[in-house]
Structure formats: structure tokens, C-alpha cells
């Protein structure tokens, strides 16, 4: 990215309260979001949000993660003002905006379908928000030119909307929202319509834009990989209730319940049938866990396992048979049979013997890597 | 030379085949248009420039008498009757089309927001009344608007009309009849335009600081403009030439151009005058279409709106 345009340049054109021009990149006064007891119902039976309390810090890249129907999009639409909460309060930058209609909120959205206006040129699309706010044409043009350079749109601005590819539309939609310099940018699964390669490229681009602007981003996705790559913090939602809030590593390594663990991609979950101090009895056998908590479910993360050839006696050593091996170049994934249970393991391939299917091995895991959680 | 000689003959064979192909595909339609549009129009034109015979049929010599009569010059000097009829036709067309637009927009929008399986049923409900004969429906309005009916009495009580006059016959009844009759022709093209519109665009406009009114003006309206213009053509042109509704609901002071023309052809009155009236209607319609194209172009941001 070019270094001639900085976030401060963009910021210096902002009207109102958010920052003064002489402040630098890092001094942008981003806005916080506070939600209290948000409830939303559709019809009589469908509960979309069932009491959401959440605080999003200024300048955070915050992700709402969950399966479809978990309420994440509803929550985003309430932030945008496109949906009204049945109950609860919402404040942005300390100002209560629960009752404020969408067109009076300093919040802009990148829609899942992008929702570009097909009857307008790209340039007019970008200037739409500025025009609605009554900025004079010269000012609009200057700001559109600046954002076009910042997002590196190049000659896209002079093309008709219907001649843009998916990735180009996505970037125009992002620019159309950012040009207004909102307090908060909302993104509703903005990358879900793109193919995998473009998607990871735009993930990186989006992340860089957010870091340079220091703006508060609220991002909605159902893809836990995407959430982990992008976010400062993640909130996992299910059934209209927040299950867990935390940085990606915390949510991945210490999920609070079986739902979060499964949603973050964990399969190695086993009931704890008996417990004597740090000794846990599970269908895999007896295991020692240190500081694993009091939950009734044991989580073994696949990357914490080690495989030793043959049978090696020792603490936290389990005899197993390899039933499947997926070679992935840098690492390999194994499916292991222990008694009637199966266990997934992911191992780095660096300088090691790769156990074959059918080979007898010993699974080893460190006591401090074991976590228990509630059902 | 033998070699080059082959190509032209092959090419001419191809051209012959193409010409024959064109003849078979175009000829039936072209014949139809010539017999039922071009010839009758030419005949109508010719009639308009002929003299009126003793039984109302056209005669030689050629004359401009019917255009003079149409302009209001009669045996007793100039009278404004025909001019009033023209102005009334224009007025009724503009008012009823305007009302149809105002009523049809919310209906079309509402139907487009309903669940997909309800939409065909709702469209059907809009269209079904027009399956009944127009004369019968218009008689229905006569009964509804006649003196001593609830609607007329309500209008009387509100002081809108004099006692025992009834709402029919009147120009108001004609407007009402036109609006009722042409509503489906506006709802359908507008619905088609709304259905293509992504609902997220309305939200995007609001998200980008547009109030509901401005969201409609800047995001919705331009995209429904082709549907609106198609609807106006479907409504305004037949309304301008409408015969049945002013005949039944208008009374003596509700006459429109269609009635003027029809009267000249019926009862052996004056065919050349009727033909001149038809030409006047045609010219007025062309002017209207031309004006709409210009307006549509301007509203559509310079984009060509095909009617």
C-alpha cells in the first residue's frame, strides 16, 4: 500500500467531534459500543436475541461469530438501526442511540450483497452518503478521490457498476462506507460471496485498512477461521445468547462450553466419568490434567498431541492405532483409534517419521494442555 | 478466372436463401400490419380531407372543412365546445393517470415485499376485476354513484354536491371510473420494477444518511422509472381515447374526444369530422410520448428509457 495517504489525512477531513487534524495515526478517537440487555423477537416464536450485554472497545476489530440463525446479523442490524430492539439500550461513543433512526447514526454498513446502486456510476455510489449529508460537490469529489486512492480502486471509479467483479464490488462497497468516516463500520459477511483465494487476500486488505484507520469494526461471519485471522476479540453467539467473548486464542484454546468448542472446530471432546484430584477417567483411559477446571467434558486440542512409535509406557501415554492419515505438506492430520473412541491429531511434519495407517503408536499429551469445560 | 467465378455464385445462392428465409419469417406479420394498420390509417387520413356527404359519408372534393369544424367553426360562427372536449380529455387523462400512479406505487411496493408464494395471488386479485366486461363494471359504478345511494348521501352531507344530484353523472365519476379501470395496468409494470429491486438497497440508502423520503427519491424511484413510464403509456393513451366510461358516467358535460369521434361515425353524422378527430388524438398522443421520453431521460440521469 502507498504510504502517501495516511489515516490522519483522511481523518483531517472529518467534521465534528471525533479527532482534530493535528493528531496522528494512533491518536484517532475511535468510538466504543455498549449494548445492554438487547432483546429481539420475530413473530411469536422466533427469538433472535435473548438478552445481549456487550461492550466493544474503541478501535477494536470485533467479530460476531455463530451459525446461521444465531442472531449475529440481527445484532448488527440493530447497531445499524435497520432493526429495532424490543428491549435494551445501545450507545455508541457514550451517546445513547437506541431510538435514533439509521440515517442519523454515524454508522455505516458493508452489506452482504454489497447493495450497490445499479442506476448510479461507481463515483456516484461512493459519493451517495456525502451527498445525503449535504456536502458541497467539490468536497464530495475530493473525499471520493482520496478514498479511491486509499482503497486503491484505480480506474474502477469510472466504470459502470454492472461491469464489476465480485471482489471489485466488495471493495467499492467498503469504500462507499468508509468515505463517510463513520464512528463504527459494520460488515455483514462481506467476504462470503467470494472464492477462497480472493477471500484470504481481501481478509488481509481489510485488516490493514482497519489498523491504519484505527476505526471500530464490527464484523459478522460464520467462518471461525476468518474470525480468528481478523479479530481482536470474538463473541460467539448461539440461540440469541452470547456464549463467550474473548481474543481468538482464548476462545480457541479455552472454550467455555461444548457449543463453542465444536464451533471453533474441535472434535476431541470426551465425557469425564470419574475424577480423583488431577486424575480424570475418560473413555480414552486415565489422564492427568493440571488446572483443567471442573467441567464434565474433556477437550484435547489436536495440535497438543504427540505420536511416539510403538508402545511406550508413561504418564498420559495412550496406546492407539492409526486409522487415517491426511498428508497436508507442512503438517499431517491423523485419525486414531483408542479402544472404541477416536481421536484427531495434527502434527508438524518437520523431520519426523510419519506413522502409516494401521501402525501402532503411543499418543502423548502434556497435563497442562488438557482443558475441561461444561456441557 | 474459373476459381473466382465460383465465389460470387455461391454468395448469391446464400443471399437468395437468406432473402427467402426473411420472406417466410417477416411476410405474415408485415401482411397483417399492412392490411389492418397501414391501409386503414391511410384511408382514415384520406377521409379526413374529404367533404361530408348528405348521409355523413365522405365525398369528393377534397377539403379542409372537417378540420375547420373540429377547431370549432360551424354554421353559427365559432363555438368552444370541441376545444373544451379536447381540454377535458387532456385534464381527465392527466388527473386519472396521476391518481393511478399515486395509488399503484404503494400497492406494487407492498406486493413485492410479501412472501413469494402470496405474490401471484395478490397480483391476481389486482387483475381479476378487469376480467369482467368494462361496460358491466361501469354500470356498477353508475349504481354506486347514483342519487340516493350511500356514497352520494355522504357527499351531500359533507356539502360536496347539491341535494339529490348524486355523484353521477359528472366529471368526477369519469375520473373515478378511469382510475378504477386502469389501476391494474400501472400496478403490474411497477411491481415488475420493484421485484427486481434488491431490498438491501433501500437499507443501504438509509444507512448512507438518506431519510425514508430521500431513499425513495434517490435509490428506489430511479430504478422503478422504466416501470413507471411503461405504466403511464399503458394508462394514459387508452384513457385519453376512452369511450365507454365518459359515455356512461360523464353525461352531457363529461364528453371526451373518444365520444366526439365515435358520435361522428355512429348514426351517420360526419365521417370526415370523425376522421379529423382521430388524427387529432393521434397527434396529441405522439406529442405526449415524445414529452415523456424527454422527461424520462432527464429523471433517469441521462440514461435512455425505452418505451
From TrEMBL, chain A:
GO terms for molecular function: ABC-type transporter activity; ATP binding; ATP hydrolysis activity. Residues 1-30 are annotated as: Disordered. Gene3D superfamilies: 2.40.50.100, P-loop containing nucleotide triphosphate hydrolases. InterPro entries: AAA+_ATPase (IPR003593), ABC_SmlMolc_Importer (IPR050093), ABC_transporter-like_ATP-bd (IPR003439), ABC_transporter-like_CS (IPR017871), Mo/tungstate-bd_C_term_dom (IPR008995), P-loop_NTPase (IPR027417), Transp-assoc_OB_typ2 (IPR013611). Keywords: ATP-binding, Hydrolase, Nucleotide-binding, Transport. GO terms for cellular component: ATP-binding cassette (ABC) transporter complex. Residues 33-264 form the ABC transporter domain. Residues 15-30 have a biased composition (Polar residues). Its EC number is 3.6.3.31. It holds the Pfam family ABC_tran. PANTHER family: SPERMIDINE/PUTRESCINE IMPORT ATP-BINDING PROTEIN POTA, SPERMIDINE_PUTRESCINE IMPORT ATP-BINDING PROTEIN POTA. This is Spermidine/putrescine import ATP-binding protein PotA. It comes from Halomonas lysinitropha. The gene is potA_3.
UniProtKB/TrEMBL annotation, chain B:
Residues 86-292 form the ABC transmembrane type-1 domain. One of its GO terms (biological process) is transmembrane transport. It is a multi-pass membrane protein. PROSITE patterns: ABC_TM1. It comes from the Bacteria. Keywords: Cell membrane, Membrane, Transmembrane, Transmembrane helix, Transport. InterPro entries: MetI-like, MetI-like_sf. The keyword rRNA-binding does not apply. The chain crosses the membrane at residues 21-50, 90-111, 123-142, 172-194, 224-245, 265-291. It is found in: Cell membrane. One of its GO terms (cellular component) is plasma membrane. The keyword Transmembrane helix applies. Belongs to the binding-protein-dependent transport system permease family. CysTW subfamily. This is Spermidine/putrescine transport system permease protein PotB. The gene is potB_1.
